[in-house]
From TrEMBL:
One cellular component (GO) term of this entry: extracellular space
Alphabetical list of Pfam families matching this protein: Serpin
Family: Belongs to the serpin family.
Gene Ontology terms for molecular function: serine-type endopeptidase inhibitor activity
Upper classification of the organism: Eukaryota, Viridiplantae, Streptophyta, Embryophyta, Tracheophyta
Species of the source: Deinandra increscens subsp. villosa
Protein name: Serpin domain-containing protein
Domain Serpin: 15-387
UniProt KW keywords: Protease inhibitor, Serine protease inhibitor
SMART domains noted in UniProt: SERPIN
Length: 390
């Protein structure tokens, strides 16, 4: 399968996950998560699975084989996640880790995939007598990989003496806007909450032309990050419903169109009239396994004989994934964006000539996406319901 198709399948999975999270589970809270991070952990689990469990994972991940998933992951790691900061682009880091009970050994074929495709460090640990210490080790690892932003990816009690394997993944992103906002122009204004109340929050603004496009019932703003000396272009997109309480219906619209983001990218700068974007900072964690089960991915979490390709032992018959924990962080200010997460074809649009200024007034709940535009890979997604809440 070609990379473009694999990526669009991966984005489709991301959107399924996101719309479920945003509309069903946490529709009244600020959220940020990395669908890519969760995808990588599931791909890693797939590499050690077989039978119906593997079939269900592949079907959920919209992939035809583990080879396809492995190929996608290795290309993404080399393509998307190379650190761009030495040449002036965004600072990026992406890391995988595997912790395995020391009385077990990984199957050579699985160990090779873990090391070569996922570039994951394998750590032998003592779950049976030191479960709490191992959990702390994983948490320290995630904190280090995300520049201190993700403190506890594994909550207390999530690891015990029956744990045999932990898979973890961490993503860190820090980008500077192509055109920074002038801090002296940031001013307080009203933000309309879903319950009809208003709160005062600091809004950034600018008189410069912006990548904004109006669609039916919503607008999209694209804020590009400074590019390094490679082809990658990272951009943060803000999807703002026209209606003050229109976020839910916008999320539904996104969920019903698999290539929604590709089709709603503002490609040219326009004059803006009123232009306000709130500063915000969000830290959000959830148990991803609960959400995955609700979406029908149940077999990896059930036990049975699905995860037999991971370890060289008859214990392989009774392994299961007890939980997948995910935690993300994002901060948007005048300089740019810092974001982190951990879990355990060119079509030109005809330009539209217009002299009218477009307003982009993000004074009510909206959705955001951080995306790499060359490939279309979505790194982070989330929503802002109340910019005051961290």
């Amino acid at each position: 399968m070609d990379l473009q198709q694999s990526i669009s399948n991966q984005t489709h999975v991301s959107i399924t996950l996101a719309t479920h999270l945003l509309s069903k589970k946490f529709h009244t809270s600020n959220i940020v998560f990395s669908p890519l991070s969760i995808h990588v952990v599931l791909s890693l689990i797939s590499a050690g699975s077989k039978g119906q469990t593997l079939d269900q994972l592949l079907s959920f991940l919209k992939s035809s084989s583990t080879d396809d998933l492995n190929s996608l992951s290795s290309q993404l790691v080399s393509l998307i996640f190379a650190d761009g900061s030495p040449s002036g682009g965004p600072r990026l880091s992406f890391a995988n880790g595997v912790w395995v009970e020391k009385t077990l050994s990984l199957k050579p074929s699985f160990k090779q995939v873990v090391g070569t495709v996922y570039k994951a460090a394998s750590n032998e640990v003592d779950f049976q007598t030191k479960a709490v210490e191992v959990a702390n080790e994983v948490n320290l690892w995630a904190e280090k990989q995300t520049n201190g932003l993700i403190k506890e990816v594994l909550p207390a009690g999530s690891v015990n003496n029956s744990t045999r394997l932990i898979f973890a993944n961490a993503v860190y992103f820090k980008g500077t806007w192509n055109e920074k906002f002038d801090q002296s122009m940031t001013k307080e204004s009203d933000f309309h909450l879903l319950d009809g109340n208003k709160v005062k929050v600091p809004f950034m603004t600018s008189k410069k032309k912006q990548f904004v496009r109006e669609y039916d019932e919503f607008k999209v703003l694209g804020l590009p990050y400074l590019q390094g000396q490679d082809q990658r272009q990272f951009t943060m997109y803000f999807f703002l419903p026209d209606a003050k309480d229109g976020l839910q219906s916008l999320v539904k619209k996104i969920g019903s169109t698999s290539d929604f983001f590709d089709r709603h990218i503002p490609r040219q700068k326009v004059e803006v009239g009123q232009f306000l974007l709130p500063k915000f900072k969000i830290s959000f964690g959830f148990e991803a396994s609960d959400t995955l089960k609700e979406l029908g991915l149940v077999l990896p979490f059930n036990g049975g004989d699905g995860l037999t390709e991971m370890v060289d032992s008859t214990i392989g018959q009774s392994l299961y994934v007890s939980s997948i924990h995910h935690k993300s962080f994002v901060e948007v200010n005048e300089e740019g964006t810092e974001a982190a997460a951990a879990s355990a074809g060119v079509v030109m649009l005809k330009s539209i000539m217009t002299n009218e200024k477009v307003d982009f007034l993000a004074d009510h709940p909206f959705l955001f996406v951080i995306r790499e535009d060359m490939t279309g890979v979505v790194l982070f997604m989330g929503q802002v319901i109340d910019p005051r809440v961290g």
